[in-house]
Amino acid sequence: ALAPLAVLGSALLTGCQQAQQSLSIGDMASAFNREIWVMSIWAIALSIIIFFGVSFALFYTVQKFREDKHDAPPAQFHGNNKLEVWLVAVPVVIVIFLSVLTVRSMAILNPTPDQATKIDILAKQFWWNFEYPEVKADAGGEVANGNEMLMPTRQPVALTVTSGDVIHGFWAPNIGGQRAAMPAVNKTWQVDTDRAGVYQGNCSQLCGASHANMRYKVIALDQARYDATLAAMKAYRAPEPAPGSPEELGYKLFMQGKPATDPKRPETGAASCAGCHRVQGTPAGGQVGPDLSFFGTRRTLGAGMWEGQKAEDMLIPWLKNSPAVKPGALMPPYENGAEYMVNGKPTKGYSLTDEEINAVAAYLRSLKLPEEADYWRDVP
Ligand code: CUA
């Protein structure tokens, strides 16, 4: 009975906040959420009735049969068949009623992936990758985006979630349908939303130092715009940097890294970014870190740790030393061979100059969808 009360409590506390990006399950943007909501309300209402019924009966009995009100003990008897039938029948009816509600909701909410838009989700410490398996990039490979998930409105969307390391939890409260992301397990379920907008998602399973910094955005677009955006992503090829531009230097460092000045000390050079990250339409095909194909279009950085201008401002500190700004981040520092922890052991990072870091940032910012396919357009 406590769970529905907690649900009610969080809804009361946060239900009145602004719709956009609130973390409230009371701000329902999907039929899924509404279905769960109806069940919760029934469970809460019945719990309240039972609570007051039992409390009343208890106080009534205590009051009525107080010793000082009676000269002799009240009538003593054993068993009351009529009362016992009621005491069994009423809970049975309540349980059957709630079971019917539950089974009905399960039937409605069960995945029907054949007719649903499919999105594959990979959770890792401490970021997300969203892949659109029904679309293959013209330049080869999948169409995927790190930490910002697109979904169409007003139609079933089949999400399949898995983890690349420990157990994480996929949860976008406004959309509903929390699921655990577990290594070597694919879980598919169906969600939907009837409202275009941006919704906040968080990891909901304690998973390490930056569990709280493992966020994402769900960007729900109307069907036509969703289709156009996916088409643009499919056709996307990372731009060729102009010769002599900072982007060109950034591209080179991204793809090849930098040779170590002292061959015995790798920290005097830099490993490539491409070993860990993928950029659609380039040789970069790494699968260790999030997909960076549309990095320049993204508005968040560090798996939703920063947004907007703050995300812009944090890009350089991020590249210089991400574990220093996000606890537990697994990307090595790229400045001054700073140390970071790998499996509890201090490990040297790499050494890029300020100019080189700026060049990598410039290259990342150039990885942009065309203006008309910017899924953040119209979002304040
Ligand atoms: Cu991933 Cu918490």
From TrEMBL:
Key word Transmembrane helix present in the record? Answer: yes
Its recorded reaction(s) are:
4 Fe(II)-[cytochrome c] + O2 + 8 H(+)(in) = 4 Fe(III)-[cytochrome c] + 2 H2O + 4 H(+)(out)
Q: Which Pfam families match?
A: COX2, COX2_TM, Cytochrom_C
**What are the Cytochrome c domain coordinates in residue numbering?**
245-368
Which top-level group of life is the source organism from? Bacteria
In which family does this protein belong, per the annotation?
Answer: Belongs to the cytochrome c oxidase subunit 2 family.
This molecule's function is given as: Subunits I and II form the functional core of the enzyme complex. Electrons originating in cytochrome c are transferred via heme a and Cu(A) to the binuclear center formed by heme a3 and Cu(B).
Cofactor entry: Cu cation
Q: Per the database record, which ranges form the Cytochrome oxidase subunit II transmembrane region profile domain?
A: 17-113
- GO CC annotations? plasma membrane
Cofactor binding summary note: Binds a copper A center.
Residue ranges spanning the membrane: these are 1-20, 40-62, 83-103
- Write down what this protein is called: Cytochrome c oxidase subunit 2
Per the UniProt entry, the signal peptide is: none
Identify the gene encoding this protein: coxB
Q: What is its main location?
A: membrane
From which organism does this entry originate? Deinococcus arcticus
Q: Which residues form the Cytochrome oxidase subunit II copper A binding domain?
A: 114-232
Q: Which InterPro entries match?
A: CcO_II (IPR045187), CcO_II-like_C (IPR002429), Copper_CuA (IPR001505), Cupredoxin (IPR008972), Cyt_c-like_dom (IPR009056), Cyt_c-like_dom_sf (IPR036909), Cyt_c_oxidase_su2 (IPR014222), Cyt_c_oxidase_su2_TM_dom (IPR011759)
PROSITE patterns per the UniProt record, alphabetical: COX2, COX2_CUA, COX2_TM, CYTC
What UniProt keywords apply to this chain's record, in alphabetical order? Copper, Electron transport, Heme, Iron, Membrane, Metal-binding, Respiratory chain, Translocase, Transmembrane, Transmembrane helix, Transport
MF annotations from Gene Ontology? copper ion binding; cytochrome-c oxidase activity; heme binding; oxidoreductase activity
What is the protein's membrane topology class? Multi-pass membrane protein
